[in-house]
Amino acid sequence: MLGDDIEWRVSEGLLPYPETLAEMEARATAIRDGKARELVWLLEHPPLYTAGTSAVETDLIAPGRFPVYPVGRGGKYTYHGPGQRVGYLMLDLDKRGRDVRHFVHTLEAWLIGALARLDTPAHIAPGRVGIWVDHEGQEAKVGAIGVRLRRWVTLHGFAVNVEPDLGHFNGIVPCGLPEFPVTSLAQLGKVTAMKQFDDALRIGFESFLSGLSGAKNDV
Questions:
Q1: Which of 13, 32, 65, 155 is deepest in the core (most CB within 10 A)?
Q2: Is 40 part of the annotated catalytic residue set?
């Protein structure tokens, strides 16, 4: 439990996607109805692909390789799998500021700050959602962001590549950007222990919440 009455949950093992999605959506509804606390949920999934609302069929290069799940978040195809830290955020923007862009920008800053604590300089790129690093003279994506709102409660969140099998990304065009590779903390020669990344996230979480307070309400 966090001082701001937000549950911080870290799940062990590989959680099946459909059941996780159902629990996330149920929790968001309960938050909106005042029956549950907000939740930050850190976990890993078995290998799978998700198709966002902008997914293009031709970006699925290897149909049948892994299960594909259509989801209501923005974006195109993404991969989830072992060694990737997925963070689902169920936060109430009705009380933290009804500003979706500000929420995403603050989330990006939180992730960049966590990576900086692990000696991994990262940045955002104009016109390209996600978290990027410089790798062998080229920009590479180390983290994806995809969010959705339901009655001003956030759903979904982020995925950061700590030590996944990067070959699994070859079955899709990740986020519809074929010209940019994906990378991981392990490939960059940085920390590979999931707990160390989780700890870096936790250290910056209060600043993340404080940053949300600067949002402007969108009606």
A1: 155
A2: no
The single residue of 86, 175, 209, 215 carrying the catalytic annotation is: 175
Sequence-separated (6 or more) residues with CB below 8 Å from residue 109: 208, 211
The full set of domains in the chain, from first to last, is 6-212 (3.30.930.10)
Summarised one tens digit per residue, pLDDT across range 86-105 is: 999 999 999 999 999 999 99
Distance CA 60, CA 168 (A): 12
Q: Positive or negative, the Cα torsion across 174, 114, 93, 41?
A: positive
- Under 8 Å between Cβ of 164 and 180: no
Tens-digit pLDDT profile for residues 24-77: 999 999 999 999 999 999 999 999 999 988 899 999 999 999 999 999 887 889
Give φ, ψ of 168 to 5 degrees. -70, -20
Average pLDDT over every residue of 111-124 = 97
